[in-house]
Amino acid sequence: MNFDLSEDEEMLKALTERFVTDHYDHDSRRAFLAEPAGFSSANWELLGELGLIAAPFPEELGGLGLDATGIATVFEALGRGLVVEPLAEAVVMAGRLFAATAPESLQGEWLDDLLTGGKRLALAHAEAKARDGLAWVETVAAVDGEGWKLTGSKPYCAAGGGADGFIVSARLSGAPGDVDGVALFLVRAGTPGASARDWHMADGSVATSLELDGVTVPGDHKLTEDAFGAIAATGDLAALARSAEALGIMERIFAETIDYLRTRDQFGAALGSFQAIQHRMVAQYAAIEQCRALLNLALVSWGSDDFANAVHGARAYIAEASVTLGHEMIQFHGGMGVTDELAIGGGHKRLLVLSRWPEGPLAALDRYAGLLN
């Protein structure tokens, strides 16, 4: 089977790599994370100008309609660059979810700005008691005249810092844990009754805790009553993007560790010359190749009924293997491996978040085995 990229995919890869080369180094990355939203607003604007924000959106809406291979190609390159702009959460997940569910009135108001980076949405779905059970929704939506009133708490809105709006899941009927009876609503940032508090995730990115105290939203701000069907359909590509990003990070920190082992002397010899270290590095190289094989299996399943299952299987393996690889690379560097002075530490922290968000590898494995919806 031929896994070579097409000419368009090669151009997309080159464009992403050029963005990384021109705008990212270790010090600039740390500066971007220190910004209020946890990433560079200037970079976000540039990504919009380059078309990388619009790329995952359907062609009929003004995007490039990237397929699985295109998305994986972009995010693997972003991972190698340790890019902090939240394209997976804000674009592949929240942006595409909005595009797939919003009525025409809202699309006309929001879509152009979402595609160019002028506006940004965040998904407000996960709740404190969910514990990998994505159907657990306690937030309630009650009819309020011609609109809706939302009450509840969404403490884990990834990439929510500075977002212009939130896609909120809320229960219309049933009990927490029921798949049916949950809808999605658009809540604009700053709406009375909606209070947002930003906090930092393990990788330094900014998430938001959103409290909804009788928030009133217009009737046309209800996006869909099939929240879980919509989230699942969009979430498969987002999971693929996160897995590809993790693979790119693994490749980056593995390559930097090889360089370090070749140049760091200990007991009068390069560290890389010791057989025990060589064996451990070979094991991690094999893990990277296994991750790539599983990712490729998902890519060739695109468009078939097996795609979602292949993505869950790839994510379950990559989530575990990436954290193990990060631990190993840190061990080879010693104490400085966990500091902010090296890309190893920052890369590993990002891998920790990617492996556990929005659910852990065991939940992904359960989905692969057909035990979860």
Overview of the structural elements:
- The protein is α+β, with helices and mostly antiparallel strands and 373 residues long.
- It folds into 3 domains: 7-116, Butyryl-Coa Dehydrogenase, subunit A, domain 1 (Orthogonal Bundle), CATH 1.10.540; 121-225, Butyryl-CoA Dehydrogenase, subunit A, domain 2 (Beta Barrel), CATH 2.40.110.10; 229-368, Butyryl-CoA Dehydrogenase, subunit A, domain 3.
- Helices cover 50% and strands 16% of the residues.
- The protein has helices at 7-23, 26-33, 41-50, 68-80, 87-101, 104-116, 227-263, 275-300, 307-333, 343-356, 361-368; strands at 121-124, 140-144, 147-158, 165-171, 182-188, 194-200, 206-217, 222-224, 265-266, 269-270.
- A 4-stranded mixed sheet has the order 1-4-5-8, with helices on one face.
- The longest helix has 37 residues, at 227-263.
- The mean pLDDT is 93.
Q: Could you report the average pLDDT, rounded to the nearest whole number?
A: 93
Pattern of helices and strands: HHHHHHEEEEEEEEHEEHHHH
Please report the total strand number as a whole number: 10
Distance between the ends: 31 Å
Share of residues in helices: 40-55%
Described by the principal axes of the CA atoms, the overall outline is: globular
- What is the level-2 CATH architecture name of the largest domain? Up-down Bundle
Which value, in Å, is the CA radius of gyration? 21 Å
Q: How would you name the CATH homologous superfamily of the largest domain?
A: Butyryl-CoA Dehydrogenase, subunit A, domain 3
Structural class: alpha+beta
What is the total domain count?
3
CATH class of the largest domain: Mainly Alpha
* Distinct helical segment count: 11
Strand order of the largest sheet: 1-4-5-8
CATH fold-level assignment of the largest domain? Butyryl-CoA Dehydrogenase, subunit A, domain 3
Low-confidence stretches: none
Strand fraction equals 15-25%
The description of the largest β-sheet is: 4 strands, mixed
